């Protein structure tokens, strides 16, 4: 077992039953010229997460931690994209429309894939999800059960949308979640701050919050044994 200082209090986890979940670090969201930027967002707010997440991935791989990546996107015929999601925003920039990196948020397109800096290593599962939460209409729950995972270390984008939705889903399913503040990002700084506060509020109503160096330090005994 390992313990680290977090908000609202110490977080204890067993590396053998803990998984790192990296949410939606995709080109369409993260890269200049991608879908996120075409909507007027400042992608630098998300790109600041790349370096700490890369360091975190290296440490987790060295420690033998389970690592799972997710991608938000849809089938080419949009049969898994409900009208409530599809009919949002400028028609020329909606899901499925031609974008600077291929059809926007369509599986198999260049923009849908994970950025090179955080590319999954061989053998690391990638969960494709049609919604904001990583458990909805995916096999994530079954995968975690098969791996014996009981705690999740959560990173990715965006803090207030896909990260928050996934943490809430995980909390309802009995997983203990640690969100790493420097490895999650929002296009809106005020949403980033408030989103993190909401997770740890009321005694950790959805989980715990810490930064990645603190978590990596807690992994050191595991690293020394590998």
Automatic annotation (TrEMBL):
Q: Output one GO MF annotation.
A: hydrolase activity
* Annotated ranges, domain Isochorismatase-like: 18-205
Is Hydrolase there in the keyword field? yes
Query: Which InterPro entries would you find in this protein's record?
Result: Isochorismatase-like_dom, Isochorismatase-like_hydrls, Isochorismatase-like_sf
Pfam family, any one: Isochorismatase
Does the keyword Ribosomal protein belong to this entry? no
Q: State the UniProt keywords alphabetically.
A: Hydrolase
Q: PANTHER family, from UniProt?
A: FAMILY HYDROLASE, PUTATIVE (AFU_ORTHOLOGUE AFUA_2G08700)-RELATED (PTHR43540:SF9), PEROXYUREIDOACRYLATE/UREIDOACRYLATE AMIDOHYDROLASE-RELATED (PTHR43540)
Write down what this protein is called: Cysteine hydrolase
> Which species does this protein come from?
Dactylosporangium fulvum
């Amino acid at each position: 077992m390992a313990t680290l200082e977090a908000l609202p209090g110490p977080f204890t986890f067993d590396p053998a039953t803990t998984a790192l979940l990296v949410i939606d670090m995709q080109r369409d969201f993260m890269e200049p010229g991608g879908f996120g930027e075409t909507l007027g967002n400042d992608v630098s707010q998300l790109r600041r997460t790349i370096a700490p997440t890369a360091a975190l991935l290296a440490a987790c791989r060295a420690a033998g931690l389970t690592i799972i990546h997710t991608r938000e996107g849809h089938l080419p015929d949009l049969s898994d994209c409900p009208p409530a999601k599809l009919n949002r925003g400028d028609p020329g920039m909606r899901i499925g429309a031609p974008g600077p990196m291929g059809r926007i948020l369509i599986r198999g397109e260049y923009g849908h894939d994970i950025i090179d800096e955080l590319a999954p290593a061989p053998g690391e599962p990638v969960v494709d999800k049609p919604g904001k939460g990583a458990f909805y209409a995916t096999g994530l729950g079954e995968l975690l059960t098969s791996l014996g995972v009981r705690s999740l270390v959560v990173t990715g984008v965006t803090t207030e949308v896909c990260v928050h939705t996934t943490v809430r889903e995980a909390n309802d399913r009995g997983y203990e979640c640690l969100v790493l503040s420097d490895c999650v990002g929002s296009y809106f700084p005020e949403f980033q701050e408030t989103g993190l506060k909401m997770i740890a509020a009321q005694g950790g109503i959805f989980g715990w919050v810490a930064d990645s160096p603190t978590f990596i330090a807690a992994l050191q005994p595991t690293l020394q044994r590998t």
